[in-house]
Amino acid sequence: KTGIYKKINSGSKVSKFLFHFFTKVCIKHRKLTDSLLSLTPRYTHRNRFFEKLIAVIPWLLLLPVSSLGHILVLNKIKSKFGTKFVAGISGGGSLPPHVEEFFNGAGILLLEGYGLTESAPIVALKKQLKPVRNSIGPPLGCQFKILDGNGNILPPGNKGILHIKGDQVMLGYLKKDELTKTAIDNDGWLNSGDLAVESFDGEYKIVGREKDTIVLLGGENVEPEPIEQKLSESIYIETPVVIGQDQKSLSALIVVNMDSIKKFIKDNSLAYGTEESICVQPEIRELINDEISRLVSAGNGFKTFERIYKYKLLGSSFEVGKELSGKQDLKRHAINEIYATEIKELYN
Question: What pLDDT is attached to residue 195?
Answer without folding.
Answer: 84
